[in-house]
Amino acid sequence: MAHARPIPDLKEPDYKERVRQFWDSDPCGARYLGDKQDFEAHARARYELEPFIPEFAGFASSAELRVLEIGVGMGADYLEWLRAGAQATGVDLSAISLEKASRRCELAGYEADLRVADAEYLPFSDNTFDIVYSYGVLHHSPDTAKCLREACRVLKPGGQARIMLYHHPSLTGLMLWLRFGLLRGKSLRRTVYDHLESPGTKTYTQEEAGELMAGFQDVTMKQVFSPGDLLLNRPSERFRSPFYRLLWRVYPRWLVRKFACKWGLFLLISARKQ
């Protein structure tokens, strides 16, 4: 079965450079750091908004295991691997994000093993890691299927992949479509592709995600709401006008939780290498 490509991948020579520049300029979650670069505030906000992360990642059961995190960002999850006693390595395309992650670990008293690397070309030998973890990252790559093949390659036989990809359709996508796509004749997916985070962000149905995970066994998926689906996140700069402040205040979260459970942005995928 062919790997899913719901929106054609960008092929411009500078595509990855554009993605890197985006995350260098706005590391994921930086709005929660505050002026004093408060890493504890960032972690607190992350796990309050997404309380399912620790169980999905499995930090508590990772002691002595070799873990690779693809897309470390500012290192909140990476530090949790170290605190749990894992032998954790982390990679990211953004050197600026890794600088913050390294500083975070240093302040917490841990030595980090972090490096700039491309998820499509992981600089590790076959059968190296017990766990490969990537949370909300691989859908930003030009070739998500290749990233997942690389994740499978570096896993040991029987090793676990824990991957979060963006789901289609989602409430986040619908809201972006109403704002940026409706009057421009764009599809829901194309709107997300053009306007959610870095250039070329892709989303997948569960069937398409299953095709992407074809190299793995025992694949399970769980769909959950993102903070963006519920407007629980702190708005970015482009959503801070009086209109958006009002929208954040009156948004019917209880109604969404009750009736829109199939429209969550986050697809939590667990799988095993044979």
Topology:
Layout: H1 15-25, H2 39-49, H3 53-57, E1 66-70, H4 76-83, E2 87-92, H5 95-108, E3 114-116, E4 129-135, H6 144-154, E5 155-166, H7 171-181, H8 188-195, H9 206-212, E6 217-224, H10 227-230, H11 242-250, H12 253-259, E7 266-272
Parallel strand pairs: 1-2, 1-4, 2-3, 4-5
Antiparallel strand pairs: 5-7, 6-7
Helix pairs in contact: 7-8
Account of the protein in words:
- The chain is α/β, with parallel strands linked by helices and about 270 residues long.
- The chain has helices at about 15-25, 40-50, 55, 75-85, 95-110, 145-155, 170-180, 190-195, 205-210, 225-230, 240-250, 255-260, and strands spanning about 65-70, 85-90, 115, 130-135, 155-165, 215-225, 265-270.
- α7 packs across α8 (about 190-195).
- The longest helix has 14 residues, at about 95-110.
- The radius of gyration is 18 Å and the shape is globular.
- The two termini are about 20 Å apart.
Mean pLDDT: 91
Rg on CA atoms, Å = 18 Å
- The share of residues in helices is 25-40%
The outline comes out as globular
Number of strands: 7
Q: Residue ranges: pLDDT <50 for 5 or more in a row?
A: 1-5
> Which secondary-structure class do the elements indicate?
alpha/beta
Which sequence of SSEs, written as H and E, runs from N to C? HHHEHEHEEHEHHHEHHHE
* Number of helical regions: 12
Strand composition percent: 15-25%
Q: Main beta sheet: strand number and arrangement?
A: 7 strands, mixed
Strand order across the largest sheet: 3-2-1-4-5-7-6
Oligomeric composition of the shown chains: single chain
C-alpha end-to-end distance? 19 Å
